Amino acid sequence: MENCKHLEQVTIRFAGDSGDGMQLTGTQFSNTSALVGNDLSTLPDYPAEIRAPAGTLFGVSGFQLQFSSREIHTPGDQVDVLVAMNPAALKVNLRHLKNNGIIIANSDAFSARNLKLAGYTENPLEDDTLAGYQLFAVPVTTLTKQALVEVPLGVRDKDRCKNFFALGITYWMFSRPLDVTLQWIDEKFKTKPNVAEANKKALNAGYNYALSTEIFTTSYCVLEAKSQPGLYRNITGNEALVLGLITAAEKSGRQLFMGGYPITPASDILHYLSRYRHFDVKTFQAEDEIAGVGAAIGASFAGALGVTASSGPGIALKTEFLGYAVMTELPLVVVDVQRGGPSTGLPTKTEQSDLLQAFYGRNGEAPVPIVAAQSPADCFVAALEAARVALTFTTPVMLLTDGYLANGAEPWLIPDPDTIPKIDVPVASAGQEYQPYARDPETLSRKMAIPGTEGLEHRLGGLEKENITGNVTYDPDNHDMMVHLRAEKIKRVAGHIPRPELQGDAEGPLLVISWGSTYGSVFSARDTLAREGKTFSWLHLRWLNPLPDVLDDVIHNFKHILIPEINAGQLIRIIRDRYLVDAKGFNKVRGLPLQTGELVETILTYL
Amino acid sequence: MIETLAQKEHKYTREDFSSDQEVRWCPGCGDYSILAQMKRILPELGVKKENIVFVSGIGCSSRFPYYVDTYGLHGIHGRAPALASGIKLANPDLTVFIITGDGDALSIGGNHFIHLCRRNIDVTVLLFNNRIYGLTKGQYSPTSERGKITKSSPYGSLEEPFNPVKLALAAGAGFVARSVDRDPKHLEAVLLEAAQYNGTSFVEIYQNCNIFNDGAFERFTNVKTKFDHVLYMNNDDAYRFGREHEKQLVWEDDRFSVKEWREKDADHAEVHQPETISDARAIALADMDGLDERPLPLGVFRKRDVETYDTLLTKQIEEVKKTKGQGDLKKLLHAGNTWQVK
Q1: Is B6 an interface residue toward A (CB < 8 Å)?
Q2: Is 60 exceeded by the pLDDT of residue B4?
Q3: Domain-ending residue, one of A169, A188, A222
Q4: In B, which residues are within 8 Å of A412 by CB distance?
Q5: Surface of A (437-456) touching B: CB under 8 A
Q6: Tens-digit pLDDT profile for residues B297-311
Q7: Interface probe with B: pick from A287, A410, A450, A454, most Cβ of B within 10 Å
Q8: Which run of H or E residues covers position B202?
Q9: What is the mean pLDDT of chain A?
Q10: Which of A80, A317, A431, A525 is deepest in the core (most CB within 10 A)?
């Protein structure tokens, strides 16, 4: 292509009203970029209001993605290109734009009314507000209408196609093919041929407009990333998590039972699972969060793999039942898609602030294994591991993801299910001598006896159990022993989970310890510094409880320990407590992933 | 449950259902009678005991599962319906009982209770109503009468009580009945009918707490008073009561009133038909508390034939499999737009 300027990576942000279809536009750009072989990472950033009044600042919905010819794990700090469909979108997102970054603005939407709603006294497209940026003011609405003159649709319906016009411009600008989106439109609007026609026309018109007018002088190319060979698909965290659960059910020969209650940003887990009745998946939309987890525990008792999924406020409600699952020692996967808190907090924004809730949010001594996913696609592995530990150790397991992982997407190297090992579940058979609280000497898990098994009738409950028999007892020494047995069982999980790999030297000036979705930010920071010839050691924790032995081996070999988190400092307390080290935190609680640039600056102060 | 009645080879006795646990209710507690009647009806169900699960919440009544030699879960306060729903939906072949109390089901677990009734999952709920909190040693409960003097209401409680039967009817339970601990024959019959019903069956059992609320139901159990204050509802029988069945209920002006029974009423008197009873009549019966001249009804208020949630779920799974085929994990993982990196 003429004038095709090669770039290593680009960050683009689509922004408009909640009703402008920005999530859809961003998703289309992501899927197309994935199919041309770029590595990518996305960040949907939308308001909690479903349809906020048009043109308002709080109604702005954004979708950011970074696509690259290198391995990347973050949606990018600052954006290279901002597509702003109205003044509010420009106002809210301008701070994300790099100096000299590109703005594609729908000039038709910069009316007096919209300018006022966005708090502009003058039209920023016409004064010097945007000096220092490359501004492309395009009358997107008008051009879309003109392109659709012959399509028999109403004005409103035509107007709704303008996001595809804008998408067409960006496809030309970044040399993307149109066919993936054209096919998607055909499939999506199968029953509405006029709508399909209009959207396709708008997409083509946007592309041709950019191609044929003199406004855009340069188009850019981002080459294929050199990824590991294999078959890929683009996937969000919630999708990957659901596939991981279904895989775990199949590998363990258990029926998957999910008890849930709608809550942002975890609801998609319930939605997706409910589609898979033909995999014998039973979803139960309960009357509340408590009933959701209770039904899951009941299902586990009856022999299923019981799962519940929620976010912080819902997890708080489930707390009593989590302690019950600890006491009855039944398998249970509890997914916490963390969001901004406390209380209702920031429902659609990301945060890592439920770690201490996962560790300690129960009455009594009630330890549970805790696993955290590190990227959207990694939710598959994290869910599979969570289920494996829950079933093998007959225990509830907390699986932590967050709003960014849940809705963010990235390419996923699809595993071959035949290579995934089976999960053995400790279940007693009819005719065996059965003691409900007799333990496997190695894992300390107890065998379950599933209702329907002749001769193994027994009763479980939340009252303290006598060791071996499981009878109710208030004996002081027995209680002391059981408290320690339950804790020891969770410690022994350490021998059954992959050891995290220490990146870099086993001693030196700085060890960075991270968990969950900050993986991407630390990866990028290390990548950035490596180009400057600088490095640091890094340990990313998939399992937070139990902590891995490797930490005992190396943590005292470093001058500084830095723990970046999207909270006010939670893992840092656990690390300080356990290892008596003077760890430092890097904490930003803005409802967004940590910025690589800020993290790099902080790390440099320790090198 | 009905189809398993044919399984004659598993004829159990009462003793087969006694667990090895020592029963720890207070001497004289009404719970003993309920446990005894339950052990009488379990062999009648023709269900193998490994297929029976008792689930309870918290409270005196909720110790019940420990005393029956079947599978059991002693749950947490108010949440037995949640556990039981999960058990029944995971394995619809199981016969599931919920044992609960007035505080457990109607106060802390009120939300779960009404949703259980509305969903019509095939479980049998036994609510032991003693109108007091016993395990926590004597506070007023959501069924205590207004003005009740208790440890937490030394000047009298200020609340109107719930009427459990009315609540279950309104929430949509298919089978709703009431019995009383001191009438073992009646209790046994009602429990058997409830357990055999396909759908959510609810039985309120008036249960005397001889420690904290002794005599709460004396009027309905004492032979000196009960004939004048209790209506035993029987299928296809007129609403007659009194020692010599000399009184009857008559539906007038949208309510039941008491009239003298005359022999000539036999051909036209309204008879009790729980399968077809209207909501208005069922609620009107539930509204009678036996404290005025109208009697307290015991027996089955309503027994509707409604498809259960568990059956519908099984059917839905079969339907989806018919159109989509049994799920294939490999295909599932490979769904959507994929691309090959070489």
Answers
A1: no
A2: no
A3: A222
A4: none
A5: 449, 451-456
A6: 999 999 999 999 999
A7: A287
A8: strand B201-206
A9: 96
A10: A525
